[in-house]
């Protein structure tokens, strides 16, 4: 087992490893660690998702924007407007 390898963590390309010059990967890494690796492939970048059923890598889905935090004061204002029938003079 020589050359560059892709270390997978939870089927995600986590990092790329190489043996030190003059050494093999088996000399540098445990068999248990290497069992979680695949031979390096052109075009694979860190963070790509590995599908063992098709033996392919794909880009991760785009990140979703988190919901903006709720402003508790605005919720209180809206609740008071409902309770007072929209008269919020006392809230300002």
- Rounded to the nearest angstrom, the radius of gyration is 27 Å
Write down the overall mean pLDDT.
85
Strand percent estimate: 15-25%
Largest sheet geometry: 3 strands, antiparallel
Summarize the structure.
By secondary structure, this protein is an alpha+beta fold. The protein has a domain at 5-58. The protein has helices spanning 25-28, 31-34, 72-83, and strands at 5-9, 12-17, 37-39, 49-51, 56-58.
Folded structure, characterized:
The protein has 92 residues and is α+β, with helices and mostly antiparallel strands. It has a domain at 5-58. The protein has helices at residues 25-28, 31-34, 72-83, and strands at 5-9, 12-17, 37-39, 49-51, 56-58. Strands 2-1-3 form a three-stranded antiparallel β-sheet, with no helix packed on it. A two-stranded antiparallel sheet has the order 4-5. Strand 1 (5-9) and strand 2 (12-17) form a beta hairpin. The longest helix has 12 residues, at 72-83. The chain is rod-shaped and about 80 Å long. The mean pLDDT is 85.
Give the helix/strand layout.
Blueprint: E1 5-9, E2 12-17, H1 25-28, H2 31-34, E3 37-39, E4 49-51, E5 56-58, H3 72-83
Antiparallel strand pairs: 1-2, 1-3, 4-5
List keywords for this structure.
92 residues; alpha+beta; two-stranded antiparallel sheet
């Amino acid at each position: 087992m020589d050359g560059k390898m892709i270390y997978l963590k939870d089927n995600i390309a986590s990092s790329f490893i190489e043996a030190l010059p003059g050494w093999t990967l088996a000399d540098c890494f445990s068999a248990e660690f290497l069992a979680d690796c695949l031979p390096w492939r052109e075009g694979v970048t860190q963070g790509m998702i590995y599908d063992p059923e098709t033996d392919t890598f794909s880009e991760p889905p785009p990140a979703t924007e988190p919901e903006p935090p709720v402003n508790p004061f605005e919720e209180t204002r809206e609740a008071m407007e409902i309770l007072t029938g929209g008269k919020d003079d006392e809230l300002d």
